[in-house]
Amino acid sequence: MSEYVAYCVKCKQKREMKNVQVTTNEKGRRQAKGTCPQCGTKMNLFLKSDK
Ligand SMILES: [Zn+2]
Q1: Residue 16 Cα, ligand 1 centroid: separation in angstroms?
Q2: Which domain holds residue 28?
Q3: Distance 4 CA to ligand 1 centre (A)
Q4: pLDDT at residue 10, rounded to an integer
Q5: Which end of the chain is least crowded, N or C, by CB within 10 Å?
Q6: How far apart, in whole angstroms, are the C-alpha atoms of residue 27 and residue 37?
Q7: Residue 23 Cα, ligand 1 centroid: separation in angstroms?
């Protein structure tokens, strides 16, 4: 399973995000944004840092 699994508030289930875009904020925190493969709701996930 990919690391881009987030909770979809609409499906009320964990889903693997589609169209994932990873961004890093000013604090160096990595965040993944994507959409739910089932309903298309936008999803958001904070990732563990690599270091
Ligand atoms: Zn969904």
Answers
A1: 10
A2: 5-46
A3: 14
A4: 97
A5: C
A6: 29
A7: 21
CA of 50 to the centre of ligand 1 (A): 27
- Is residue 25 situated within a structural domain? yes
Task: Report the number of distinct structural domains present in the chain.
Answer: 1
pLDDT, tens digit, for every residue of 13-51?
Answer: 999 999 999 999 898 899 999 999 999 999 999 988 665
Reported pTM: 0.78
Centroid of ligand 1 to alpha carbon of 51 (angstroms): 31
Q: Which helix (H) or strand (E) holds 32?
A: strand 30-35
* Mean pLDDT, residues 2-7: 90
Is residue 51 in a domain?
A: no
**CA dihedral in degrees (29, 13, 8, 32; nearest 10)?**
30
